[in-house]
Amino acid sequence: MTKSLFWPLFALLIILTGAAKATTLENYPPSFQGANRPFTLLSPVDPAPSATIYTLSGGVTTLKRFVGKVVLLNLWATWCAPCVKEMPQLDQMAADYGEELNVVTVSQDMGDPAKITAFFKKNDINSLPPWIDPQ
Fold first, then answer.
1. pLDDT tens per residue across span 37-77
2. Order of all β-strands in the sheet with 131-132
3. Are 73 and 106 in contact (CB under 8 A)?
4. Which end of the chain is less enclosed by CB atoms within 10 A, N or C?
């Protein structure tokens, strides 16, 4: 990924909050820092909204599913040229970081799962689970 795209994507990086019973202040929020990751953790950590997201088959979850994890939340659409260009890069990030970074891409294609399925197949998107906001 080029540096010019890295920082805008970094701006989308949010840390979802909410402490599990075993979570302590010394290991929360989760660290995503290091020599190659010069991120600044916000303090105090603000909770992300508990927005509802859907699988393409109609399954439902909320962003609370990612509590305590490092998340890059990307709202995108198949008709958005910059979104189309960055999706393969986000897919590669998801493959590279695995569970260390949860890349959550939520389509804004107004509830048309066939568009998202076709887009993922055409662009060889394999590491991102497809999520949609039907509204």
1. 666 666 666 677 788 888 888 889 888 888 888 888 899 99
2. 13-15, 70-76, 102-107, 131-132, 52-55, 60-62
3. yes
4. C
Which of the two residues, 127 and 19, has the higher pLDDT score?
Answer: 127
30, two tokens: 């989760």
Query: What number of CA atoms fall less than 13 Å from residue 123's CA on the CB side?
Result: 21
Q: What are phi and psi of 25, to 5 degrees?
A: -65, -25
Please identify which residue in the block is written with the tokens 């998107």.
125
How far from each other are the two terminal CA atoms of the chain, in whole angstroms? Answer: 31
Cβ-proximal residues to 12 (8 Å cutoff; 6+ apart), any chain? 72, 73, 74
CA angle 71, 121, 82 (to 5 degrees): 55
Is there a contact between 134 and 111 (Cβ–Cβ < 8 Å)?
yes
Cα distance between residue 131 and residue 121, in whole Å: 15
**CA separation for the pair 37, 110 (Å, rounded):** 34
Instruction: Give me the amino acid identity at 19.
Output: A
